[in-house]
Amino acid sequence: QVQLVESGGGLVQPGGSLRLSCTASGTIFSRNWNAWYRQAPGNQRDLVASITSSGRTDYADSVKGRFTISRDDAKNTIYLQMNSLKPEDTAEYYCNSRTIFSWDYWGPGTQVTVSS
Q: What would the pLDDT profile of 85-111 be if each residue is shown by its tens digit?
């Protein structure tokens, strides 16, 4: 059984930083396409950042230069470093992992709130 669990969310002031983590059991991140999505109330779930099995990264325009996705293969963990946070970054953040067979796995989410 595959389980993904996010952590690291919380309340932060505008301009602050947070690092989200996503750990997995039952799947190996380095073999998959992995990503962070976010969903604000009333909005659709949007792709924030992705990292391929070979380590290539991609970002939504709204977070380029502020967010960094990375992977620690020894820990089987995906990270999202978020700097210069803005109120519009407030959302539930979800970890996603897609296998070579296109099986999609999701974590339960972690809330990020950017507010003064």
A: 999 999 999 999 999 998 999 999 999
CA–CA separation, 71 and 91 (whole Å)? 22
Q: Which stretches does DSSP call E strand in 56-90? A: 57-59, 67-72, 77-82
Q: Are the beta carbons of 112 and 8 closer than 8 angstroms?
A: no
CB 12 within 8 A of CB 81: no
Quick: pLDDT tens for 26-54: 999 999 999 999 999 999 999 999 999 99
How many other β-carbons are positioned within 10 Å of the β-carbon of residue 2?
A: 13
CA distance 106 to 96: 5
Contact by Cβ (8 Å): 5, 73: no
Phi/psi-derived region of residue 48, left when phi > 0, alpha when psi is between -120 and 50, beta in every other case? alpha
- Kindly give the pairing relationship between strand 46-51 and strand 57-59: antiparallel
What is the percent of the chain with per-residue pLDDT over 70, rounded to a whole number? 100
